């Protein structure tokens, strides 16, 4: 069952995530956090970083797995998801960078990277709490519409809509946005013990309504959350406006 929480602001959503995650870290110091890029989780990471500092929570054993990475983009590129996760999560929270993995988008090894990544998640005991954003077309991670709901981590082609949406991170130039990515599959994401999806703004309203109230379909990847026993969707009023 999906729990829906409507909040007044991203900060309020961030505090809900921070409270849950801080409790998880206290209960299980070597817990596994599922991490996402995009603007939606930023307030949540900030709230968690503030709480970790205020309460002096020991995060030295916390492990992390990111959802996805662009294919063929240098990991040191400022817009690679490796750089983004370092900048937005690892550094502010003070996590051990060696314990936080991001899928490897290197084109020479990408063919086997997905299977290895899923194995590494399994070896770590699975993701305890996965944070998610949602694309305007309902994608989670980079699982675009049409992705199998049972999929594992693999290479995918980005849709034109996603490349248009993400061009803002590449000088507004769609030609600079990579055409492919490696992403955890929907099946991988569903294995996490707990999911928290964050969506803000009217641009997400349709995708949110389709995900929560529409039928479960690979044409709206986020609708797979309906299959998960412990999923929470936290939205502001604008993103909830079509519910
Ligand atoms: C990218 C990421 C997704 C993210 C989406 C939405 O496509 N791969 O994980 O959910 O962007 O981003 P934003 O939160 O900035 O709207």
TrEMBL record:
Its EC number is 3.5.99.6. The record marks 147, 154, 156-157 as: Part of the allosteric site. The active site is at residues 68, 137, 139, 144. Residues 13-226 form the Glucosamine/galactosamine-6-phosphate isomerase domain. It holds the Pfam family Glucosamine_iso. SUPFAM superfamilies: NagB/RpiA/CoA transferase-like (SSF100950). The keyword Mitochondrion does not apply. Keywords: Allosteric enzyme, Carbohydrate metabolism, Hydrolase. GO terms for molecular function: glucosamine-6-phosphate deaminase activity. Allosterically activated by N-acetylglucosamine 6-phosphate (GlcNAc6P). Pathway: Amino-sugar metabolism; N-acetylneuraminate degradation; D-fructose 6-phosphate from N-acetylneuraminate: step 5/5. The keyword Ion transport does not apply. It is an enzyme of class 3 (hydrolase). Catalyzes the reversible isomerization-deamination of glucosamine 6-phosphate (GlcN6P) to form fructose 6-phosphate (Fru6P) and ammonium ion. Belongs to the glucosamine/galactosamine-6-phosphate isomerase family. NagB subfamily. This is Glucosamine-6-phosphate deaminase.
